[in-house]
């Protein structure tokens, strides 16, 4: 019955000193970490904006201008106005209504198409559901598959680790880091005090000392060959002396802290040689770390990780994610619909003349773009 309390006391005292040792190491790590180089801030690509902000302002005003023209067309719309040009008679009556309606239809259809990408966020009885919310699971699956197959997979991670020689670099940094810690006189002194205090407290406990003495006697007995002279002599001595041998071992244990205190000088030698030993076995350490890291990577399911995270995105968060990356472009598409619709209205009014004019504008724009591009080069 007495063995269980002894064992519990020994374990509790060992845990206590283990916590003290861990606190000592943590203090040294924090002390030497303050001088470590800071991690560089990762470059974040700036959001691209148009080189001509005035153009966006102009496009934003087009739908409102078309709405005003549409309202004006109810009161006046080039009534009975005609003109002759190059032998062709142009009738302007109804032009405002045609142009404004076509432009507004172009704007509204683009606005509706972009809106239907995201809204309604939840399925409605008649309105249905937006394309992206309805296909959220499919989008998550396809995106996760693309990421896991082409962007991030175990083979790519292993290749990058091998090419960057990251394990070797960090192993060298760790060796220097360990050397800085163990070269600190304060750390060495505190470590010695902790070891001596631990041994002293353990040996000072009669129950622990008695348990250690019994364990030593059992190990000595087991180490001697059966039926040997030493075995017979030890058993005879134990039989004749009994408790005296136990007392002898315990007396030797009482002197153990003093012996350890004198022997701790060898700890300095061990600590001095530790960085060199780490460098000597650097290749073995790197192979072990690489092997463990590769096992971890092989167990990493990138596809499931990405897909699960994307599935947890709610519809609003997914909408904001896409809009933050392409909101300006979506606005251009939306308001360009009003401009293209307006051109469509002119084509409805006068097909031949409008198509010729539109072809001229497109050709001039393309040629001007090519010329500017060459001048930049």
Automatic annotation (TrEMBL):
Q: What is its main location?
A: membrane
Q: Which InterPro entries match?
A: DUF445 (IPR007383)
* Compartments it resides in: Endomembrane system
Highest taxon of the source?
Bacteria
- Which keywords, in A-to-Z order, does the entry hold? Membrane, Transmembrane, Transmembrane helix
Q: Where are the transmembrane segments?
A: 54-76, 96-118, 332-349, 355-372
Q: Which family does it belong to?
A: Belongs to the UPF0754 family.
| Protein name per the record | DUF445 domain-containing protein
Which organism is this entry from? Gracilimonas halophila
